[in-house]
Amino acid sequence: MRPTIAVFSGIFAPDTGGPAKFAESFLNYGEETGINVRIFAYSDLARKNQVELSPNVHLIERNQNLFLKYFKMIRMILRESRRGSYILANGCFWEIAIARHLKEFAFFTKIPGDIVWERARNQGFTSKSIDVFQTQKLTLKFWFLRYLFSYALNNSKRVIVPSDHLGSLCRIWGVQQEKITKISNSVKSPTAPDKLGFKREFDFITVSRLVSWKGIKEVIRAVALLDARLLIVGDGPERQELEELAFQLKADVVFTGESSQREIPILLRQASSFVLNSDFEATSYALLEAQAEGLIVIANAGTGSEEIISHKLNGLLCGEKTGLSLEQAMRLTLETGEEIQFMRDAARINVAKNFNIEINYKQISNLCIHDH
User: Fold this and answer.
1) Domain 4-186+357-370 and domain 202-354 have a common topology
2) Rounded (5°) CA angle 176-20-318
3) How many C-beta atoms surround the C-beta of residue 309 within 10 A?
4) Are 237 and 122 in contact, with CB atoms under 8 Å apart?
5) What does the pLDDT read at residue 51?
6) How far is Cα 290 from Cα 344, in angstroms, rounded to an integer?
7) 202-354 belongs to CATH 3.40.50.2000
């Protein structure tokens, strides 16, 4: 009998974001390797025709009563634990915590970041960075969310983190060092990257959820100053504000909205450079995909991106550590020459060697199945 790994995720494709990307790619990995992967997630697609979805994908309607949808997910968690599935929480941490309060069972967690901080930023409770937020006094609501999140992590068999920075945050939340396992986020490298087959219509591209800490306003301002073209892939609460800013600055910016995982590589090949100007990243899937496609990548030092990018070797890092501003980095990538081509080639090699999906997903599956 094939082992079953039940992945519980807050989002799933076509939603964008790391947890959705991992859930979809890990499902595909399971199909290729003979591991039975079952996905449980919230989605707007739950009421729509799901003919194209795998029978191993189980979606709960996102837009319904909060307690009802939580009840449904908790019931699924408890059902999978009774079936003997190996449970991997790639989200739904609060639901996992409640289920674990109701019944003792073994599970693993894979965390994309501090979900309490993200909720606080989205709801306007804080504008602080993720590190400063750790010492901020919380309201009862956010204290309770922190309690549930920490409870889930501390009661899991292992906590999988994609970066050292996130591992250090886990220790702040009380997770013992021996429970923390670093496994980098991973993507598939193109078998034969096409350097000439796609016209580079844009100078820059960014792929992300359109939220404040992604720093997209600064990218638009830089594009306007450089008289360059920018493609913004993704959607979110800041979209209208970003569109208005681009209009005011007369910046050459195109918004695609949400795009499917199949469309991302095609869109990436239409640009020369990838920009990730966020305050915090664990290990960005979009950044890895951009490197795999041979784009020059620009991100911020002092974030998880620093664990992917070697400055001026396979990309550029901005900040006090490197002395390079966002505008300066973007201006550099508009140049041509051997140094630029070297960084493109080194980026592809970096992904194939250090962020290989076959190697790292095997680590995750082995951890869940053999360390149970």
Assistant:
1) yes
2) 75
3) 24
4) yes
5) 42
6) 10
7) yes
At residue 39, the 3 state secondary structure works out as: strand
Furthest CA-CA distance within the chain: 61
Sheet holding 296-300, edge to edge: 252-257, 229-233, 202-207, 271-276, 296-300, 316-318
Mean of the per-residue pLDDT values of the chain: 90
**Assign residue 273 a region: left if phi > 0, alpha if psi is -120 to 50, beta otherwise?**
beta
Q: Name the band, by pLDDT with cuts 50, 70 and 90, for residue 363.
A: very high
Residues in CB range of 365: below 8 A, 6 or more apart: 5, 29, 30, 33, 35
- Asked if residue 94 lies in contact with residue 114, where contact means CB atoms within 8 angstroms, the answer is no
Q: Which pLDDT belongs to residue 190? A: 67
Domain ranges of the chain: 4-186+357-370, 202-354
Share of the chain above pLDDT 70, in %: 94
DSSP assignments along 291-314, one per residue: HHTT-EEEEETTSGGGGT--BTTT
Which amino acid is it at 300?
Answer: N
The structure tokens 């002395």 sit at 323
- pLDDT recorded at residue 160: 97
- 253-265 in b/e burial notation, b at 16+ Cβ within 10 A? beeeeebebeebb
**What per-residue string of b and e applies to 38-75 under the rule 16 or more CB within 10 Å gives b?**
bbbbbbebbeeeeeebeebbbbbbbeeeeeebbebbbe
Residue 287 region, left (φ>0) first, then alpha (ψ -120 to 50), else beta? alpha
Confidence of residue 54 (pLDDT cuts 50, 70, 90): confident
Nearest to 219 by CA among 229, 171, 13, 209: 229
What pTM, to 2 d.p., does this model score? 0.85
Tell which residue, 122, 114, 126, has the closest CA to residue 153: 114
* Token pair listed for 115: 């979900």
- Domain 4-186+357-370 maps to which CATH number in 3.40.50.2000, 1.10.10.10, 3.10.310.30, 3.40.50.300? 3.40.50.2000
